[in-house]
Design goal:
A 6-stranded antiparallel beta barrel has the order 10-13-12-11-14-15. Strands 3-4-5-2-6 form a 5-stranded antiparallel beta sheet, with helices on one face. Strands 1-7-9-8 form a 4-stranded antiparallel beta sheet, with no helix packed on it. It is α+β, with helices and mostly antiparallel strands. It has 2 domains: about 5-140, Alpha-Beta Plaits; about 190-250, Elongation Factor Tu (Ef-tu), domain 3. The model has no long low-confidence stretch (mean pLDDT about 95). About 15% of the residues lie in helices and about 35% in strands. It is built from 4 helices and 15 strands.
């Protein structure tokens, strides 16, 4: 299938002698994985809460950072704040992001989050028009989206499934927010998190889900009678509603 443009993405160049160790000490994943292709990672607050998610891209002696346009400016400022005296440059580029399914073109990278998400390509040429229902794919595999299920200063990445999505490494050593994330990892069980649900009816994204008269979570992306919900897992189940829509665990 021909790739389509991803106009909601911005690409930075991270370069300099200390670029790799600089990022290694900040992000949730191990940059050693760049030898195999794209690395999906997040930047967290010191309290362990999600600030931004992005792809790191190996590119001939430099590292590209592919971020959502809504987060790019703030992310660039935060990275610059952490840079201090490190020999690192952080530069916006005009590179375009193309993504698609099926056979990947030369130079493309497999999306590391899930095989169903296909490939991503970085270059100067614009991709084709939108033609893929990415929300349907995300809902089918419970994959969160920037600014929808992934909410800055609110989301914890393990509740959002980052371990399953290859977005966090527990052996890489320290990074910002690592202590909180490690404590959550070693709990016996997460009490809250994203889950796949069935949706009978319609409700706006962000609608509160009620069970037995008590709030148990929120409903987010929906497609084809299914959705992604953030739930209190110990309370979810039975008869649940989001507005007038009936919700059940999938």
């Amino acid at each position: 299938m021909t790739g389509e443009a991803a106009p909601d993405r911005r690409v930075f160049e991270i370069a300099g002698l200390e670029a790799k160790p600089f990022l290694q000490g900040l992000v949730t994943n191990d940059l050693g994985r760049l030898r195999d292709g794209l690395v999906y990672a997040a930047l967290l607050s010191p309290q362990g809460k999600y600030l931004a998610d992005f792809f790191l891209v190996p590119d001939a002696g430099r590292i590209l950072l592919d971020a959502h346009a809504d987060q790019a400016e703030a992310l660039g400022r935060r990275l610059a704040m952490y840079r201090l005296r490190a020999e690192v440059t952080i530069t916006p580029t005009d590179l375009k992001v193309t993504r698609g399914l099926g056979d990947a073109p030369e130079g493309a990278f497999v999306d590391p989050r899930h095989p169903a998400l296909g490939w991503r390509l970085y270059g100067t040429e614009e991709g084709g028009p939108a033609q893929i229902d990415w929300d349907a794919i995300r809902v089918a595999h419970c994959i969160p989206e920037t600014g929808v299920e992934l909410i800055p200063e609110e989301t914890y990445i393990l509740e959002a499934g980052f371990e399953r999505l290859n977005g966090v490494d527990f052996r890489k050593g320290c990074y910002v927010g690592q202590e909180v994330t490690a404590r959550m990892k070693h709990k016996t069980e997460l009490r809250k998190g994203l889950a796949s649900v069935t949706v009978d009816g319609k409700a706006p994204a962000g609608t509160e889900i009620i069970a037995e008269g008590k709030p148990v979570g929120r409903l987010f992306t929906q497609s084809g009678g299914r959705g992604i919900a953030y739930l209190r897992l110990d309370r979810a189940g039975g008869e649940m509603r989001a507005g007038t829509a009936r919700i059940a665990l999938a």
